[in-house]
Amino acid sequence: MSHSAKGFFFLLSLWIWAVPLQAVAETAEQAFDKGVAAAADGDYEKALQWFTQAREKGLKRPSLDYNLGVAYYRLGRLDAARRHFERLSAVPGYAAIAHYNLGLVANKAGDEAAAIVWFRRAREEARDPRLKRLSALALRRLGVVEARRPPARRGSGFAAVQLGYDSNVKLASDVLPQATGQDDGYAEVMAGGGYWLTGGSQAGLRLNMSADLQRYQDLTDYDYGQLQLGLYTYRRLARWRLRAGLSWNESFLGGNRYLRILGAELRARHALSKADQLRLRYRFNRLRANDDRFDSLAGLRHQVRAGLRHRAGGHRLTGYYQLELNDRNDSRTLAGFTSTSPTRHALGLSVDLRLAAVWRGRLDGRYRLSRYNDPSDTSNGPITREDRQWRLAGRLSYQVAEDWEIEGQYSYYANNSNMDGDTYHRHLVSLGVSRYF
After folding, report:
1. Contacts of 123 (CB under 8 A, 6+ apart)
2. Domains recognised in the chain with CATH numbers
């Protein structure tokens, strides 16, 4: 990058706030004011000393983090500047200015790819026209020339391809373990999208579509595919955000028709604070077997979920409890009766992480207890089946361009059952690329 191109990267040093303090010691306020004065004179070493003293005396407010970040940046201490701007980005109302300055820090550190991501985020989030213009100028100086996008897109979607390894291939069923004990590689292709028929997320009607095809290298009887269509209405009621809709899902197993699932769903989100959200969901499904071999899976399913989500900057922590009730056809053969109708209790916890401007991660854990409604006939007499399953998963993605992403995933399942042959362990590893539009 030329010297003239770098010259525009200045911090908004005029944006050094001096908001009146409440319930803070006067000495801390005086130290902060002296830091502001020193920064205005260009003496950032002295400004850093005063700002640090203000913090040690108990001053806590966003403008202190901002000015500490400015001082560290001016002194070339980029890691310290980054930490303060990242902390500032978690404060409601300060994300845009924090992301702009993270762009400045990344550019000065020589990471132009990260700088572009931060400047784009600042431009999209900024409500202040001046900050929006500065972010756009920063992008142009970095050689990013973009056509102006419409303020709102009616449609969006994605397509993805991935290759994976399955250590213990199993039937694509939520109530029949039937793990093969065999491993195999697979390829998977996915695509999905949605279109706003009317309005938007505040009040609108949206049509969603998706398709998924997974093919194993050798165990082709376990190839799985599905098509899904959903129609959802969105509404906002005070601090509640509501979504209700109907869905249709058609699945295929081994190249043959498998199950048809009709669904109805209601979701509700309630803002408890700027960082915390209550999340509720009820889902009803009617399952129909398209192949007589799987008639025992047909029937009704109810799921009720309650959870909480906490946001901290670009990170999210989500926990939930889910109750699932099933009334399936069950299996009645000459060999006896087998229940396929479990009552389930599940606890889940996930963490979504923004590790850097172009890196994201997710950690996911779930414990599920399943107790089937009726005893099943076995060689040892009637047994009421109980399964206890752990699922642990991790995902890491890298944004190679604005709409392209490379992603690696790992999942582990440990299913412990009191039924012979239904205890298994399973590892899934995959690597793929996604395109968003």
Report:
1. 132, 135, 136, 139
2. 3-141 (1.25.40.10), 155-436 (2.40.160.40)
